[in-house]
Amino acid sequence: MELPAANRMDKVISCFKKSPDAVTRLICFPWAGGGSIHYARWGNVLNSSIEVFAVKLPGRESRAKEPFFQDMQQIVDEVIGVLLPVLKEKPFALFGHSFGAFTGFAVADALKRLHNLEPVHIFLSGASAPYSETRIKAPKRSEVSDDDFLKWLISIGGTPPELLANPEVLKLFLPALKADLHVVENYKCQKPDIPLLSCPVTCFDGKEDVPHDLQAWKSVTSGDFTVRMLDGAHFYLKESENEKTILDYITKQVETSGMDYL
Known about the structure:
Layout: H1 5-12, E1 13-14, E2 24-29, H2 37-40, H3 42-45, E3 50-55, H4 72-87, E4 92-97, H5 99-115, E5 121-125, H6 133-136, H7 146-156, H8 161-164, H9 167-185, E6 201-206, E7 225-230, H10 240-261
Helix pairs in contact: 1-4, 4-5
């Protein structure tokens, strides 16, 4: 039996602060293995002109009993299936870090191709463009043993040490992380000959992270393209100073584009 629209929305989206009068919505996509809470609380930090929707994927949080998605199309179909009516109401922007940069872009791509809807801004963080050589040649992490996987996880930082030290918690956490990496490692996307999008695109990254081919993202839009490098490694955005910088920047960009839209 299909859930009512409001229940489907609550299942897929975390929104800590409902702002029906907001000028713009910011839709946020989690990193691999991540939940929605980190972004949902941005709704309490940003001013009331921006309403924050944080995407909640199966296999975690209140959806812990649901099977993980196997491919990008499932994520795109679910997110658009739930959000399409509200995305038609008012301007929206997208933010995604790492795995979330790919899912956010895949959603933007489908929205434009299938529904002629476009964000006012796309914010992509910590990821090479999916069609870049850097990305294509990256090792497939989802296929390695748990021991090697853990070594890699420790090396990129961002995972609380107490989590890594607790085998029971790890057992719950690793499957979600590997499932998301499986999705992104099998996501195929051709470099566009002609940019499909025309909205501004901003790429953020940590200066100490492994190098990403951020410039390759420029091909997705005919609009403005900006790169912002911040101090820190892969999870630089969890550091409070960087988070403030990101949120101030997003607010300025989104409010400006929201006004242009009116």
